[in-house]
Design goal:
This protein is of the alpha/beta class. The protein folds into three domains: about 150 residues, Rossmann fold (3-Layer(aba) Sandwich), CATH 3.40.50; about 160 residues, no CATH class; about 70 residues, Rna Polymerase Sigma Factor, Chain: A (Orthogonal Bundle). The protein is about 45% helix and about 15% strand. The protein has a seven-stranded parallel sheet, with helices on both faces. Strands 9-8-10-11 form a four-stranded mixed sheet, covered by helices on one side. It is globular. It starts with a strand and ends with a helix. The structure holds nicotinamide-adenine-dinucleotide and magnesium ion. Magnesium ion (MG) binds next to α7.
Length: about 400
């Protein structure tokens, strides 16, 4: 048996997954890839298997699994290929695994991430949607299993770094006044409001500072990403929505801040590169090289801050409302947003209709309490049906 940390990367073919594999490959003396999962881009998954030689790979269907298995065998690799959600949960909870990197996008990540939590793994969380959907049950499972949950969403990782180690008993107890959650404002921060109806998916995905998957890129443009992050922060740090203020900071150099009652404000700074929070969480409480260039403050030169404009970013208001309502409201918001973003990317709706759709569907549904996972999935399914019906009436 080796002392190498065995790591499962859920969503290995995505933007966060690839950044994680980049950091892991820099430290072969510490980390070994146990399993890689991918939903599409299977040629890339095959190449990743060749590079990292995992024990397992997971793909969406048994048919694809057979093809990949044959391809792997043909080149002499003994990686076993599993299929579907069962396969994802198996490689998340496998007894040989130490750490699970949860970087599947959207609600699809919930069950495998929870499987890792329930098995008591160290879980590095990128998949914010999982926490937004089922925060109470998720955090309950973390406490129950003793799993170590570390945020790699850059803002939450920054907040974690700016908090003292013993914040778990409440923010007030460690003198925190509020959390300042920074946002870049995305590609449409200064676009005339009247032009927003005409923006394309390509424009929405062209983020000024970060290179990310398409769904989170659209969420960043609409600032739904910040809304989801507000909800994520409430669960991770046991905060109330009103303790979290969103600050637009276009340079994306400060990744978030914590404001203390004595007037101190602690910030974490760095180049906008996910390898920093990933390396931080992988090695925590130690520090390792991430491959990220040192921050050059003379090039950055200035840091700007603005309050977000609710007229420009209605999704942020909708998310804050859902956070305040609680119960099933965040899961509904998340599900309708996923359908809306996919419809926008497919050019079935215009960009401003993402917010209209969420507003109309969300405000028509009563909230229910979410004390079982079945309820979470029922709420998610219901919201998707309502969103599809909305699309049937209003989409192209
Ligand atoms: P991405 O689209 O680049 O990658 C998503 C990954 O999930 C891919 O490996 C894909 O194959 C897999 N996947 C997609 N649908 C799936 C399904 N139905 N079942 C199983 N696997 C599926 O996305 P990303 O930008 O890497 O983001 C991943 C997660 O991390 C998201 O929740 C996002 O909000 C979060 N996040 C991303 C960044 C970033 O910089 N990209 C930063 C912070 C948080
Ligand atoms: Mg983020």
């Amino acid at each position: 048996m080796s002392n190498l940390q065995q790591i499962t990367v859920l969503g290995a073919t995505g933007s966060v997954g690839l950044s994680t594999l980049d950091v892991i490959a820099r430290h072969p003396e510490r980390y070994q890839v146990f399993a890689l999962t991918g939903f599409s881009r299977l040629t890339e998954l095959l190449a990743l298997c060749v590079r990292h030689k995992p024990q397992f790979a997971v793909v969406p269907t048994t048919e694809i699994a057979r093809t990949l298995q044959a391809d792997l065998q043909a080149i002499g690799l003994d990686t076993r290929v599993l299929a579907g959600e069962g396969g994802l949960c198996e490689v998340s909870a496998h007894p040989q695994v130490d750490t699970v990197l949860a970087a599947i996008v959207g609600a699809a990540g919930l069950r495998p991430t929870l499987a890792a939590v329930e098995a008591g793994k160290k879980v590095l969380l990128a998949n914010k949607e999982a926490l937004v959907m089922s925060g109470a049950l998720f955090m309950q499972a973390v406490r129950h299993s003793g799993s170590v949950l570390l945020p790699i969403d850059s803002e939450h990782n920054a907040i974690f770094q700016c908090l003292p180690g013993h914040y778990a008993n409440g923010l007030a107890g460690v003198g925190v006044r509020r959390i300042l959650l920074t946002a870049s404002g995305g590609p449409f921060r200064e676009t005339p409001l009247s032009d927003l109806a005409g923006v394309s998916p390509e424009q929405a995905c062209a983020h000024p500072n970060w290179s990310m998957g398409r769904k989170i890129s659209v969420d960043s443009a609409s600032m739904m990403n910040k809304g989801l992050e507000l909800i994520e922060a409430c669960w991770l740090f046991d905060a109330r929505p009103e303790q979290i203020e969103v600050v637009i900071h276009p340079q994306s150099v400060i990744h978030s801040m914590v404001d203390y009652v004595d007037g101190s404000v602690l910030a974490q700074l760095g180049n906008p590169d996910m390898r920093t929070p990933i390396a931080h969480a992988l090695a925590w409480p130690e520090r390792i090289d991430s491959g990220v260039a040192p921050l050059d403050l003379f090039t950055v030169a200035r840091l700007d801050f603005h309050a977000p404009d609710e007229l420009r970013f209605p999704c942020l208001r909708l998310a804050r409302q859902a956070a305040e309502t609680g119960d099933s409201a965040p899961a509904m918001l998340n599900a309708v947003n996923e359908v809306a973003v996919a419809a926008f990317l497919d050019r079935r709706i215009r960009y401003p209709e993402i917010a209209s759709m969420i507003d109309e569907v969300l405000n028509r549904e009563p909230v229910v309490s979410m004390d079982e996972l079945d309820v979470v999935f029922a709420v998610d399914a219901k919201a998707r049906t309502l969103a599809e019906q909305w699309l049937g009436r209003n989409g192209r």
